[in-house]
Amino acid sequence: MNFLLYSINTLKFLYNISGMEIGEEYGPWVLFIGTMFQFIFVSNWSFTNLPWKTIQLAHGELVAPTNDINTIVALASLTSVAYFCRCFTKNVLGYFDKYIQPTLVLLPINILKDFTKPLSLSVRLFGNIFVDELVVFVLVSLAPLVVPIPCMFLRLCTSGIQALIFATLAAAFIGESMDGHH
Known about the structure:
Strand content: under 5%
Distance between the termini: 40 Å
Structural class: mainly alpha
Largest sheet: 2 strands, antiparallel
Helix content: over 70%
Radius of gyration: 19 Å
């Protein structure tokens, strides 16, 4: 019953985020934004209860999937692909027209803007998750009996916030591709 209630509240929450950031045509994007949110949220929470980084494997260590830059870049790239697909399917000629607005001199800056947003999304999430795991690992190593409980609570809060920020920024990025939404 709790899982069903959690699922319903999460879906309402994601509809609200998508509606606010994307605009009137947010319906098809709720699943995309929701998948991003749930993946980041569950990936971070699954590694909150125990300091999994202390477990050494034969070829590496056990860490959250969002602690790997490749996973984060893939999520940001998916957001970028969704943005460009939306732009191209809606209005191909009008999409390229926005690059020379207000003047042709700003063309390189406008092109750079579209390609730095995924980089910004990925670096922001990776930096926060990596530092969070590193701080918890160091604190648990220094004081294994005292520090873990407050750190776990802090990680629960920060992982939820990071999932929310990534989903909101992804929705805002996709919302820019909608006509008349700024």
